[in-house]
Amino acid sequence: MPNSQGEPSPKIRFEDVVKQFGDNVVLDHLNFTVDRGEKVTLIGPSGSGKTTILRLLMTLEKVNEGVIWVDDDPFSHEMRKGALTPASEKYLRQARRKIGMVFQHFNLFPNMTVIENLTEGPVHVLGRSKDEAVDRGRKLLDMVGLAEKENAHPSQLSGGQQQRVAIARALAMDPEILLLDEVTSALDPELVVGVLNVLRDIAHSTDITMLIVTHEMQFARDVSDRILMFDKGRIIEEGAPEQIFTEPRNDRTRTFLHAVI
Ligand code: ADP
């Protein structure tokens, strides 16, 4: 949606966001934006607040101060008021529907087959017909290279295959924003490549806005339009992958990259 100057507004905007757990200030007056369709990767040492950013967007946590905007909606606002009313619950549900998240642990429904995992949300939440949901589910399974597994149960799949199903399941909800939180860090090394290849394809072939937390620096370099380097709840450097990975300006970025690459 254009703003008053006629420029398109960002897809996501963190405005002076403070998040603390007790005395621990995890995000310290954080400001950043993500444009529509942009792929942004958050890097930085463990504990620097990256996952908290994704959890705030999923409304799994509340901000203490500031506002998170999605499109032109003050997305975090209803949660700040304290007790949720039915109206604000409804608002949050609708706002959250724009966002899909894939976690480190895949959290598939264990009692359902792969295709049932993919159709449950579209049928029960989006009100799609069963046929339509199955059709789309099959296309997505094909895209993640698991067309032949539609009737398998999650326990019959490798971790990498389960994670690819989790990615397909997130996409089945047609998210405008996809959040990826360390999606390969629980996998055996030989399974990581397959998952990253699927995500690379999605990043290059869709206009979904993506916010990614990963330690896979080559992957970050391949898919990101922009990298944000975090330390202690602040962005200490941001830029295009080429710049960040080849000529970081900040000493702490340099030290971090030396340690992880
Ligand atoms: P990162 O993803 O960069 O590793 P996190 O966002 O997971 O960092 O964590 C940032 C800080 O917030 C850490 O100090 C962590 O211990 C703290 N933290 C995260 N979640 C909680 C929670 N639910 N309760 C208390 N502290 C938390």
TrEMBL record:
User: Which GO molecular-function terms appear in the entry?
Assistant: ABC-type amino acid transporter activity; ATP binding; ATP hydrolysis activity
For whether the record's keyword set contains GTP-binding, the answer is no
Write down the InterPro entries for this protein, in alphabetical order: AAA+_ATPase, ABC_ATPase_HisP-typ, ABC_transporter-like_ATP-bd, ABC_transporter-like_CS, Ectoine_EhuA, MetN_ABC_transporter-like, P-loop_NTPase
Residue ranges occupied by any ABC transporter domain in the UniProt entry: 12-257
Its localization reads: Cell membrane
| Membrane disposition | Peripheral membrane protein
One Gene Ontology term, aspect cellular component: plasma membrane
Q: Which SUPFAM superfamilies match?
A: P-loop containing nucleoside triphosphate hydrolases
Family per UniProt? Belongs to the ABC transporter superfamily.
The molecule here is called ABC amino acid transporter, ATPase component
